[in-house]
C-alpha cells in the first residue's frame, strides 16, 4: 500500500531520474522529479514530501548542500533523506550520515532493494506521524478528562493502553529494520533493543536492559561514549558517536551509534537510536590506502633502481676500459679494481630494489618449488649454527611458474631470518611445502585476497624470539630493520618478488614464542597425489639428508 505517499527524486542525470521516477510511480507513489538542487528546495518548500531521494554529486549545488538547506526549515527538517551515490568512499557516507541522511542507495540500481528501502523509511515516517497524532489525540482527551474529574482515571487508563499498543507496533516494526535500534528511559537506562541489536551482541533483552551495554564498549572508547551519551541526555539533544563494540563472537567491531531525544507532550521520555556496523567500510578504506602506498613505493623504488642501473652500467664500462688500458703493475690499477668491486656491491642493492618493486621483466619458467627449497637447504647447511636443528617436510612435484633465482632469494631470506631470530641460542627451524586449495571448501591455511584455485604453500617457522605487534606490523616496510646494521630490505624484497609472481606472504608471530612465515604461489599443474617426503633433520654439524620423492 502506498497510501498516497509523496516522494521527491533529485538527480541531474536524466536517465537515472527517469528510471527512479518511473519505478516508484509504477508502485503507486506520487513522484515529483527535480534535476537540480534549486528546483528540489523550491518543491519541498511548497509541498513537503514524505521522502526524498537525493543525488550527492550534482553541478552548482551538490547533494550535501541541498541536505543542509532542507534540515534548516522546520517544515522540511524531519523529512527522511536517502542519498544516491555512485561511489563507495567511507568519508562520503559518514558525511552524509552526519548531515542527517537515513540511508544510501548505490547508482547500480537494484529495484527490489530500492523499493524495500523506500517502503521501510516511509513506514518509519508514517509510524512517527501516527505516534505524534495519537499523542495529540490523547492530550486532548486528557484535557477533557481534567474538566470532567469523574472520568479522569478512566481516560488515563485508556491513554496508557493505547500507548502500550503503539509501543508494541513500534517494536514489531523495529525488529524488521536492517540496523540495530535501542530505546532508553529518562533515567538513561535502556528499555528496548530490536532483534538486530540482540543478534549483534549475543545477549538477551534481560541482559542488556539498564546500563550493561557499556560492558560491550571497548575499554579504550568507553569513557568517550558514556560522556557523549550523558551530555546528550542532560541537554535533551541528538548525539552521534563512533566506537568499538564487542560482537557475539567476541570480536570488536566499529559501529556508528546515533540517538535522538523522544518527547511526549513536550516531556522528555528518553532517547531512541540506531547502531550501524561500519567495520567493513573502514577496512576497505584502509586496504585501499595500503595498496596505494605500496604501489607508490614500488614505483619509486623501480625508478631509483632504473636510474642507478644506468649509472652503474657507465661505471662498469669505464672501469673495464681503464683496466684494459693499464698494466697489471700499474699504480692506479688497484684503485680501478676497488671502484669496480664497489659498483658490484651497489648493483646488488639495485637488484634488491628491483625485486621489491616487483620486477615483472624477469624470465619465468615452470620449476619445482620443493626441489629449489631442497637445494637451498643443502647450500645453507654450512652457515647454520651447530645448535640449530633444521627440519624439512617437502611434498613432491610442486610446480610453479617462477624465476628460480628469485625464489632462491625468498628461501634464503626466510631461513636466514629464522636463524637470526634464534640469536645463537639454538632451536628449531621447520620448512614445509604442500599443495592447498583456496575456494569452497577452502583450507583453513588459505590466505584471504587470492583467487580461488590450487596453490603451493611454503611455510618457514622457528622457535626464536618472535616479534611484538608493532614490529610485525612493519616487517615488510622497506628499509625498516630491528638490527643495528642492515639495509632492512630482506622481507620487503620477499614481498616484492611474491607480488610479481601473483603470490602472498603472511606472518604469524608472538613475542617469545617464535614466528611462522607462510607463502602461497599459484600452481602450474594439477597432479592428483601430493605425496610427501619423510621428515628430515639438518644442522650445521651434520650432513643433511632429505629423501626427495620423485
List keywords for this structure.
about 550 residues; about 45% helix; disordered C terminus; 5-stranded parallel beta sheet; 6-stranded mixed beta sheet; alpha/beta
Can you give a write-up of this model?
By secondary structure, this protein is of the alpha/beta class. It has 15 helices and 18 strands. It has helices at residues 14-26, 37-46, 63-70, 90-99, 111-147, 152-174, 195-201, 205-208, 219-235, 279-325, 333-356, 369-380, 404-421, 469-473, 490-500; strands spanning 6-10, 30-34, 51-55, 81-85, 103-106, 180-184, 190-193, 239-246, 252-264, 267-277, 365-368, 388-394, 399-402, 427-438, 453-462, 504-509, 515-522, 536-538. A 6-stranded mixed sheet has the order 16-17-15-14-12-18, with helices on one face. The chain has a 5-stranded parallel sheet with strand order 2-1-3-4-5, sandwiched between helices. Helix 2 runs parallel beside helix 3, helix 5 (111-147) packs antiparallel against helix 6 (152-174) and helix 13 packs antiparallel against helix 15.
Low-confidence stretches: 441-447, 484-489, 526-550
Form type: elongated
Gyration radius, rounded: 34 Å
Number of helices: 15
The count of β-strands is: 18
Strand order of the largest sheet: 16-17-15-14-12-18
Amino acid at each position: 500500500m502506498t497510501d498516497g505517499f509523496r516522494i521527491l527524486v533529485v538527480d541531474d542525470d536524466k536517465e537515472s531520474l527517469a528510471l527512479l521516477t518511473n519505478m516508484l510511480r509504477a508502485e503507486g507513489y506520487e513522484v515529483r522529479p527535480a534535476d537540480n538542487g534549486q528546483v528540489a528546495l523550491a518543491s519541498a518548500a511548497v509541498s513537503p514530501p514524505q521522502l526524498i531521494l537525493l543525488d550527492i554529486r550534482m553541478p552548482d549545488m551538490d547533494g550535501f548542500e541541498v541536505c543542509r538547506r532542507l534540515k534548516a526549515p522546520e517544515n522540511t527538517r524531519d523529512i527522511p533523506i536517502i542519498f544516491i551515490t555512485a561511489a563507495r568512499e567511507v568519508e562520503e557516507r559518514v558525511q552524509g550520515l552526519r548531515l542527517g541522511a537515513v540511508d544510501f542507495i548505490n547508482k547500480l540500481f537494484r529495484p527490489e532493494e530500492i523499493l524495500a528501502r523506500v517502503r521501510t523509511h516511509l513506514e518509519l515516517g508514517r509510524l512517527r506521524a501516527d505516534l505524534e497524532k495519537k499523542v495529540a489525540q490523547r492530550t486532548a482527551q486528557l484535557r477533557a478528562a481534567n474538566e470532567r474529574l469523574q472520568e479522569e482515571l478512566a481516560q488515563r487508563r485508556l491513554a496508557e493502553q493505547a500507548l502500550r499498543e503503539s509501543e508494541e507496533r513500534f517494536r514489531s516494526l523495529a525488529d524488521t529494520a536492517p540496523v540495530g535500534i535501542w530505546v532508553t528511559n529518562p533515567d538513561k537506562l535502556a528499555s528496548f533493543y530490536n532483534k538486530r541489536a540482540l543478534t549483534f551482541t549475543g545477549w538477551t533483552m534481560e541482559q542488556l536492559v539498564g546500563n550493561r551495554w557499556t560492558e560491550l564498549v571497548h575499554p579504550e572508547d568507553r569513557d568517550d561514549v558514556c560522556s557523549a551519551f550523558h551530555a546528550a541526555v542532560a541537554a535533551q539533544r541528538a548525539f552521534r558517536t563512533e566506537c568499538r563494540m564487542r560482537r557475539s563472537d567476541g570480536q570488536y567491531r566499529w559501529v556508528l551509534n546515533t540517538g535522538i531525544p523522544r518527547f511526549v507532550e513536550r516531556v522528555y521520555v528518553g532517547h531512541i537510536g540506531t547502531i550501524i556496523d561500519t567495520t567493513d567500510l573502514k577496512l576497505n578504506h584502509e586496504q585501499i590506502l595500503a595498496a596505494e602506498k605500496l604501489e607508490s613505493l614500488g614505483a619509486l623504488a623501480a625508478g631509483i633502481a632504473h636510474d642507478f642501473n644506468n649509472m652503474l652500467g657507465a661505471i662498469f664500462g669505464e672501469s673495464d676500459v681503464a683496466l684494459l688500458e693499464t698494466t697489471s703493475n700499474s699504480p692506479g690499477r688497484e684503485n680501478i679494481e676497488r671502484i669496480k668491486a664497489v659498483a658490484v656491491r651497489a648493483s646488488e642493492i639495485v637488484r634488491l630494489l628491483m625485486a621489491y618493486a616487483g620486477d615483472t621483466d624477469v624470465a619465468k619458467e615452470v620449476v619445482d618449488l620443493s626441489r629449489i627449497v631442497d637445494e637451498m637447504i643443502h647450500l645453507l647447511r654450512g652457515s647454520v649454527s651447530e645448535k640449530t636443528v633444521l627440519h624439512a617436510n617437502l611434498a613432491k612435484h610442486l610446480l610453479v611458474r617462477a624465476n628460480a633465482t628469485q625464489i632462491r632469494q625468498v628461501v634464503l631470506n626466510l631461513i636466514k631470518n629464522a636463524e637470526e631470530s634464534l640469536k645463537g641460542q639454538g632451536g628449531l627451524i621447520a620448512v614445509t611445502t604442500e599443495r592447498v586449495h583456496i575456494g569452497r571448501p577452502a583450507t583453513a591455511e588459505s590466505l584471504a585476497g587470492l583467487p580461488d584455485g590450487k596453490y603451493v604453500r611454503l611455510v618457514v617457522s622457528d622457535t626464536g624470539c618472535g616479534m611484538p605487534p608493532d614490529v610485525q606490523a612493519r616487517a615488510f616496510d622497506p628499509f625498516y630493520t630491528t638490527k643495528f646494521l642492515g639495509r632492512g630490505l630482506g622481507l620487503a624484497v620477499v614481498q616484492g618478488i611474491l607480488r610479481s609472481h601473483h603470490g602472498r606472504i603472511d606472518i604469524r608471530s608472538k613475542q617469545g614464542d617464535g614466528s611462522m612465515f607462510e607463502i602461497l604461489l599459484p600452481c602450474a599443474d594439477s597432479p592428483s597425489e601430493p605425496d610427501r617426503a619423510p621428515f628430515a633433520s639438518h644442522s650445521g654439524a651434520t650432513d643433511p639428508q632429505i629423501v626427495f620423492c620423485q
